[in-house]
């Protein structure tokens, strides 16, 4: 099926309150343009340099989301244009995003990546770390970042029950963090769910799904 048909299929089953991020990593501009011409305006990439190149080449009414792990020394390459950074996993990274956003006189929206996978996963912070950050004074001093939600990645497994448990863990963390939020932090987004599990994620409370291969086909 075409990219356009894939997109239309997915959009027809997504509830209205769920935002679709089209994950276009490794795919050529021509594929992204096909999605763009079918109306898609939110694209997700996991490498900063690749995202910056695509940003240069594509129309300027696109929202670019960084969904991958972010190295602090590369934040500067996306600070001018990135709309949402999903994988914020430390205060140090938030501080660097704040610094680079300030240089461009803007505020960058961020999600805190929470470690939900029971497998030993490298990225993401604990719920405790996240709650400590959003209640801290040093966080309230960062005027050029805005934490607007959480993101999580489930274990790579076929076990639906396990994935469901992990998604529920993120929803629980979101609700608990929302209870703590201050004027500096308005939590609205739960970014969870990919091609294989976005329906389950939505059932568990996702408000933003990151779908790649179901739109653009398998990556080589
Ligand atoms: C690649 C990627 C996706 C999309 O994966 P698909 O299975 O192709 O839908 C979603 N989230 C993150 C963080 C990714 O790196």
Describe the 3D structure:
The protein is of the alpha/beta class and 220 residues long. It has one domain (3-216): TIM Barrel (Alpha-Beta Barrel). Helices cover 40% and strands 17% of the residues. It is built from nine helices and eight strands. The protein has helices spanning 3-13, 29-37, 48-57, 91-103, 127-135, 137-140, 160-180, 198-203, 213-216; strands spanning 19-23, 42-45, 63-66, 84-88, 108-113, 145-151, 189-191, 208-211. The chain has an eight-stranded parallel sheet. Helix 4 (91-103) links the parallel strand 4 (84-88) and strand 5. The longest helix is centred in the C-terminal third of the chain and has 21 residues, at 160-180. It is globular and about 50 Å long. The protein starts with a helix and ends with a helix. The mean pLDDT is 96. The structure holds pyridoxal-5'-phosphate. Pyridoxal-5'-phosphate (PLP) binds next to strand 8 and helix 9.
């Amino acid at each position: 099926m075409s990219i356009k048909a894939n997109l239309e299929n997915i959009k027809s089953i997504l509830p209205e309150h769920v935002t679709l991020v089209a994950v276009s990593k490794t795919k050529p501009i021509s594929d992204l343009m096909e999605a763009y011409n079918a109306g898609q305006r939110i694209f997700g990439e996991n490498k900063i340099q690749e995202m910056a190149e695509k940003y240069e080449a594509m129309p300027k009414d696109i929202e670019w989301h960084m969904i991958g792990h972010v190295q602090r020394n590369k934040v500067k390459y996306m600070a001018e244009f990135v709309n949402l950074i999903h994988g914020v996993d430390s205060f140090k990274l938030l501080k660097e995003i704040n610094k680079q956003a300030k240089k461009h006189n803007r505020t960058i929206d961020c999600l805190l990546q929470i470690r939900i996978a029971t497998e030993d996963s490298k990225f993401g912070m604990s719920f405790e770390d996240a709650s400590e950050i959003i209640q801290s004074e040093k966080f309230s001093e960062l005027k050029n970042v805005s934490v607007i939600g959480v993101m999580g990645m489930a274990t790579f497994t076929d076990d639906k029950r396990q994935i469901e448990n992990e998604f529920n863990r993120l929803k629980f963390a979101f609700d608990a963090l929302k209870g703590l939020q201050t004027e500096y932090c308005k939590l609205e987004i739960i970014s969870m769910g990919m091609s294989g599990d976005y329906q389950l994620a939505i059932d568990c409370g996702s408000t933003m799904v990151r779908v790649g291969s179901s739109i653009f086909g398998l990556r080589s």
